[in-house]
Amino acid sequence: MPFQAAEDYAVQVMTWAQEALADDIVVTRGRAYGRHRLQRYDVYAPRGADKAPVLVFWHGGGWTNGYRDYVRFMAPHVTRQGMVLVAPSYRLTPADRLPAALDDCLAVLAALNRDVGALGGAPDRIYLSGHSAGGHLATMTALRHDRWLAAGVAANTIRGCLPISGIMDLYHPAPAADSLEERVYTMVLADANEDAVMSPMCWTSGIRIPMLLTHGERDSERVIRSNRRLFALMQQQDGSPVRHAVLPGLDHFQTHTCLRQGDHPWYTALRTMVRSGTD
Question: Is 28 in contact with 88 (CB distance < 8 Å)?
């Protein structure tokens, strides 16, 4: 993933974040779910929402950077579906290495269990997503059901997961010097021996929720390979349905910026998943 492409992406989504939202979207910014300055989340809710399904979308940035405002441009399209959009930030590396960000993902869900009802959402109808590093974190959160109870996340909270261009396998046998793969070991993981522990690839047993794995046709080789392998592993389970979607012609960053289009098929897939999960 070229650094210039990442910079161009960040400029684009932050430019979109400056645009005014319609009056029928109620915005609540900077709600705390912990003491750290990055343990905050923003909420975008349809005006008058009551017990609406909730989409939690984590931003990307290689676990080292990024902002929850990266997600703001999606608010009109998510709320138009009658959903509440939650955009959290989380502790970043190298100051706070993994699993700190995963701990934060679980903490924000616990906070939503308590508080999202007052913001128009249904605490037991939460869907997870994210782009790039955010896709990795959404998937880890969904698959680590062994941690839900201790973190304060009710068993019936998470109804589906739709990660976009997530890195699903952090392991690399011989990362090149100064590469993004090497950075996982030198900047991201608290313990290099936990590359498998922090990989969704290693947590497919007992899948409990529907999942849609999405990446671009021109995504990074690592993202493509790890999503294909994760999908193959998930298909061997007897749990919830899993799908795999490839977005034609799109690279790693376009898989998120394409969601600027309100009629994008990803939103259709989200709507279908929510409707199929309605009690």
Answer: no
Residues 226/227/230/232 CA torsion (nearest 10 deg): -110
User: Rounded to whole angstroms, what are the CA distances from 93 to 22, 90, 133, 170, 189?
Assistant: 35, 10, 12, 15, 8
Give the confidence band of 208 by pLDDT, cuts at 50, 70, 90.
confident
pTM of the model as a whole: 0.97
Which residue type, as a one-letter code, is found at position 247? L
Distance CA 266, CA 263 (A): 8
Cα–Cα distance measured from residue 45 to residue 54, given in angstroms and rounded to the nearest whole number: 9
CA nearest to 165, candidates 277, 254, 239, 229? 254
Query: Any idea which residue has 């793969």 for tokens?
Result: 181
In the chain, domain spans: 3-276
Residue-wise pLDDT for 213-243, tens only, equals 999 999 999 999 999 999 999 999 887 799 9
Tokens of 59: 């931003």
Q: Domain 3-276 adopts which CATH fold?
A: Rossmann fold (3.40.50)
User: What's CA 1's distance to the chain center, in Å?
Assistant: 19
Could you give the CA distance from residue 82 to residue 94 in angstroms, rounded to a whole number? 37
Q: What span, in angstroms and rounded, lies between the C-alpha atoms of 106 and 186?
A: 24
pLDDT per residue as tens digits for the range 43-100 = 999 999 999 999 999 999 999 999 999 999 999 999 999 999 999 999 999 999 999 9
165 in Cβ contact with 137 (< 8 Å): no
Tell me the C-alpha to C-alpha distance, in Å, between residue 223 and each of 13, 37, 44, 215, 252: 21, 30, 29, 7, 8
Is 104 in contact with 34 (CB distance < 8 Å)? yes
